[in-house]
Amino acid sequence: MLHMDPTSFCVAFFAALFAIANPIGNVPFFIMYTANAASTRIRQAIAILLGPIIFATILLCMFFGSSVLSFFGISLPAFQIAGAIILFTIALSMISGTHTQQVNKTTSSDTDTTPWKAAEAFIPTILVPLVIPIYVGAATITVSVLYGQKAIAGGFLFYAVAVVAIICLLIIVCNLASDALMRVMGTQGLEIVVRVFGIILLGIAVQMFAEGAGDMVTTYIHSNLTVNS
User: Fold this and answer.
1) Sign of CA dihedral 216, 212, 132, 96
2) Cα separations (Å) of 173 from 44, 50, 116?
3) Residue 112: DSSP 8-state
4) pLDDT in tens, 181-195
5) Whole-prediction pTM
6) What is the DSSP string of 24-88?
7) Quick one: 211 exposed, middle or buried, by C-beta within 10 A (0-12, 13-18, 19+)?
């Protein structure tokens, strides 16, 4: 691993980041959170604008994530638990239907603006949880920090940025393809999908919470054993 060449680095980083960011598997979540956009053009604009936002977020995590968390005294397990709590509350609102009502209120006034301006107004309403922690969660931060350190140490900085850019392009392409799925499902189908994925999101939140809590307990036990020994 210390003598990793650029090709091996790119393949390993791409595989890890693709599996965690999951451009294909996260399309249903993109559909959920943009289903109430006023038009297809606005939804397409949102898909395109989300790419650079996710790109910048991953790069920030790659080079500053561990430093920021350390500065505030936040461990990755604690960050994971916080993300789980956010997902938990949003999942409950999706299951009950209040999430759809909130999005409708937020986006109902975007009728006289251009698709790009409407998309810019829409994006802040879905940054949490779509960007953080669905696309960029604790696992993404961990992988980004790890490979960011390897990129700096091995001189692979350009390759690391290129891998992140490719992943974000794949996210854009997959999200643009969501329009076809939306036309097939229709309004009622989308509402059913929202509630079903609310249950799935609830399961993800519980899993994230359990993993974060387990890591915190393990770290606590390990630190106590180290001090006592």
Assistant:
1) negative
2) 10, 11, 17
3) S
4) 777 777 677 677 777
5) 0.75
6) TTTHHHHHHHHTTSSSHHHHHHHHHHHHHHHHHHHHHHHHHHHHHHHHTT--HHHHHHHHHHHHH
7) middle
pLDDT (mean) for 50-61 = 95
Residues 48 and 126: their CA atoms lie apart, in Å, by 14
The residue to which tokens 């891998």 are assigned? 163
pLDDT score recorded for residue 44 = 92
For tokens 């969660």, the residue is 137
Name the packing angle between helices 40-71 and 115-122 (round to 10°): 40
Q: Which long-range contacts (CB under 8 A, 24 or more apart) does 195-201 make?
A: 195/94, 195/95, 195/97, 197/28, 197/29, 197/32, 197/94, 198/91, 198/92, 198/93, 198/94, 198/95, 198/99, 199/91, 199/95, 201/29, 201/87, 201/90, 201/91, 201/94, 201/129
Structure token pair of residue 227: 């001090």
Average pLDDT over residues 43-72: 90
Give the residue-averaged pLDDT of 201-219: 84
Kindly tell me if the per-residue pLDDT of 143 is higher than 70.
Answer: yes
Dist. CA 203–CA 200, nearest whole Å: 5
Q: How many Cβ atoms from other residues are within 10 Å of residue 100's Cβ?
A: 18
pLDDT at 36 over 80: no
